[in-house]
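Q: I have two molecules that I believe assemble together. Could you output structure tokens for the complex as a whole instead of separate predictions?
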Amino acid sequence: MYNLKDLANTVLSSAEIREQFPVLGISVNGRPLVYLDNGATSQKPKCVIDSLAKYYNEQNANIHRGVHTLSQEATSLFESTRSSLKRFLNAEHEHEIIFTSGTTQGINLVAHSFGKAFINKGDEVIISALEHHSNIVPWQMMCEDKGAVLRVIPMNNAGELDLSVLASMLSNKTKIIAITHVSNALGTINPVEEIIALAKQYKIPVLIDGAQAVQHQQVDVRKLDCDFYVFSAHKMFGPTGVGVLYGKEKWLNAMPPYMGGGDMIKTVTFEKTEYNELPHKFEAGTPNIADVIAFGESIRFMEEIGFDTIRIREEELLQYATQKLSEIDGLRIFGTAAKKTGVISFNIEGLHPYDVGTILDQLGIAVRTGHHCTQPIMDYYRIPGTVRASFAFYNTMEEVDVLSAGIKKAIKMLKR
Amino acid sequence: MSIKDKESEIVEEFAMFEDWDGKYEYLIDLGKDLPAISAEYKTDDYKIKGCQSQVWLHAELIGGRVRFTADSDAIITKGIIALLVRVFDDETPDAIAEADLQFINEIGLAQHLSPTRSNGLLSMIKQMKMYAIAFKVQNT
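A: Yes, here they are, computed for all two components at once.
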């Protein structure tokens, strides 16, 4: 077995890297699949898929309870993913890693439990104009419940946030700031370091939605000094149905549980329940054991490839794709921030994104079309949606060429 | 011409195209040729909720037959509506309500029928049949 890191460093776009991802070899509508919808979900390497099969073939047992060997082994595999994540994020404690079903649940958990403990009538919660609906709606629900006010950091035409406005929004009424690290619709990398530094001046906790960031860059939660960081496994080459909520111990201890059930209790009588300690307090019920274990494999896989390689590959792809697509007549790119991940959101003048996406699909090119669960961004630009191509390190320059040719073909067909 | 006959006619037309681009170009042309919907019906009241492309549909009963007009902001969706309007327009409420459309499968556009597709083709058919049923009830 070759060393993936060496491989990645020597032949970046090699067939060997792509061979690790079985689905990249399939055909769609009679053409080789060109998968450019990594922002929605990434593909899975063999090691992750094998881990899932191995778990159900050889290791399946419920965890944290059984006295028997199989249960203890499953528990130890499950917990080893937690320990990998502690290292991956540079968290201080393993119990600061809470397994969730995904980013959405992580944000709902914090909005609910933090809100319950710390937010009162007239308090303020700050989000940004770049948020995914899942970092808007849970806060709206909580604010409505509590009589709190939701405030929004505005963006400019390039898709960048205006931090001077944020500075003027902060006060002792502000109870939490929830902000995306990277915009899913536009690719903007937000200056979360500066936002956190500003918030610290008022001792305001900050939640970072890292769903579109953790697969592209090294995240160090201690260096960032964020209070919460949430993300999903399935966008980082891991299985669906698993996510992580990182929270600082002091907050997680001070917050009430989100769900009640098994595993999250110490003692239960009909009069009173004493809650279990972290992380179990927030992990009621049998968790997604198989997928958490397989998630550990995707972390290992990413660490072997390395963020240097990932960054170099994705930057090259973004640069090349931006240049190629900008050459197409009538194509407008939405989101032109100075700092971006490998995302190009675009429209063709006079064409509906749905039509463009449908033709691209016929050509075997998978892109996302629509509002990308960010209707406020689409409203800002006064458009119904965009076509979004989002890259992963396994994409190639040749695929960018196929995309570019595909868009030209779509224009030709749709503008006849 | 009955709904079944119109379906057969569409299937024959699409059979002339060997590859997907011919089919889609034909669909796009049909979309472009779809008679415009009156501006008064291009409002939220007549909109069929779809995720990505907007679709407006209006129906009225004239001489016992349902007359449909429709529009969309996406041209492929509009082409699909044009086919549906062609099949259902000027038919009796009974015939529309009872119709079991087969042509979409047969012309290789079945992928647009999946409920996860956000063009709302299924919703369009449902809405057209709802109108037919409503007219039926009104008449009895």
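A: One point stands out. The first strand of chain A starts at residue 27 and ends at 28.
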